[in-house]
Amino acid sequence: MELLKFVGMFAGGLVLLLVGGRVLVDAAASMAARLGVPALLVGLTIVAWGTSAPELAFNTISAVKDRTDLVFGNLVGANICNIALILGIGALIRPLAVGEEVIRRELPVLAATMLLALVLGVAGQAGFARWEGALLLGVFLVYSAFTIISGVRAKARASPLEGQIGHGVATTTTRSMVSCAAEFVAGLVLLGIGGSLAADGASGAAEALGVSPTVVGLTVVSVGTTLPELITAIIAIRKGHVDLAVGNAIGSCMFNIACILGLASVISPANLPENGLVALAVMTGLGFVLLPMARTHNRTISRIEGASLLTVYAAFVAFQVYSALSAPRGIEPADQPGNGGPGAPLDPGGVDSR
């Protein structure tokens, strides 16, 4: 009976995610058309920050509670999901055309920021001190300001939405900005509730089946917190809004690694958890792999490349699960020194606190 309840929560969460993703994409496309700015800018900022809002709240609270191991695993795991899982699935649905601005500016900045996080993570005490968190926050503020200014300037150059948003925009641009904003907020609310329900349901079902809480944390939490981005990307790609999908993935990665990890490190400095260096290296490697992928196959991420990204994600998850299962009985990664404090247990409540 308990298992059925959790399965029902997961199914209900997915329904809300599907509805919320459709509402948010339509509203974002309409807002871009009303403002006369590129869809890419909306994807990099409003949509990316909006779909990452649940992660911001979840990880800020976790940092305040000194659960730094959970913060690190969630954010780095979410970025790996954004690149390998979301873009991989998106490319299988439809080869992802990558715009000139993304190739020239967004992807190099993302790769450089990930490399910076890797260097900061292994330097000094092998973790993130407050000043390092402040540095990451500064990078995010500069990047955001530059992105917004560049997008606004692009408004004066051509009709930026032609060929980017696709069908349906002409019928939605007559709506008022207040209506678009209200629909956008409604989409975010549905995504937040749906993501929470789906993650809690999947985690509860796993525990009811006797799966280790550590394995649940390594798989369900990272995937669960990126479900809004995944659903939004799938809907955007199917409706032809590729710029929104690619911008959402890149913007979410920047928001996670620079803004949220930076803020969490300022609140509660932490050492790298077990296998933390491996996770950082995989995340950074994926960031750099996107650079040649975006320039080949007529500047698209092809279906073959999408399948390759999914293979990397599956191998990473398999490695993390194997590491957790092969750990000595009674010693979970969260119990090791530097992982959220001495003896901090990774209990189900911690996993599902979002």
Care to describe what's here?
There is one protein chain. The chain is mainly alpha-helical and 354 residues long. The protein has a single domain (39-159, 222-351), classed as A middle domain of Talin 1 (Up-down Bundle). Helix content is 76%, strand content 2%. The chain contains 14 helices and four strands. The strands form two sheets. The chain has a two-stranded antiparallel sheet with strand order 1-4. It has a two-stranded antiparallel sheet with strand order 2-3. Helix 1 (2-35) runs antiparallel to helix 8, helix 1 (2-35) crosses helix 10 and helix 2 (39-51) packs across helix 11. The longest helix is centred in the N-terminal third of the chain and has 34 residues, at 2-35. Residues 158-172 and 330-354 have low confidence and may be disordered.
